[in-house]
């Protein structure tokens, strides 16, 4: 990332149980099942940890009409969940117009049958270089991060076919070229850099939009 960000990581195995701000708890409603409550609280706890790295505490992270997090004034960010982990990524609007993060479990990524829904032809070729679905999951995660970063700008929905990703080996990530206008500063042809971090079981993707 070119400017400072706050990052929070929470796991279901953490000793301290995540606590919701009262305004966040009200978003769930009485009918939310325990699993839904746990993962929502885990994501909000990761978001609070990320905000604390920027010196912001005691505030609620709301929820927009499309389910996106609503950040305190002057902040942009994103939340991601997969398996037992939740990640929050935030930055200041003086540095970023948007931030995107996504995490996926490699063992539970998209099926090969879903590849044609996720991939454009050139991307499909890249995923088929090796057996298994690792590359497909990496590409899926990267696109999710891109869409999370761009959606809050003008609330334009992007489908998987609206960005074409090219792997950049030296950066361990993708260049994501937009095939649909996402916002005033992000017309067709705009490129977002996506960084990918691989572990034995997960892929983490991050990207940003400059202010």
Distance between the first and last residues' Cα: 13 Å
* Rounded radius of gyration (Å): 17 Å
Strand content: 25-35%
| Morphology | globular
Order of helices and strands: EHHEEEEEHHHEEEE
Give the full name of the CATH homologous superfamily of the largest domain: 4'-phosphopantetheinyl transferase domain
Structural class by sheet pairing and helices: alpha+beta
CATH fold naming of the largest domain: Ribosomal Protein L22, Chain A
CATH architecture of the largest domain: Alpha-Beta Complex
Q: Order of strands across the widest beta sheet?
A: 6-10-9-8-7
The residue ranges in which pLDDT falls below 50 over 5 or more consecutive positions are none
Helix content: 25-40%
The CATH class assignment of the largest domain is Alpha Beta
The number of domains: 2
Count of beta strands: 10
Mean pLDDT: 92
Determine the number of helices (DSSP H or I, runs of at least 4 residues). 5
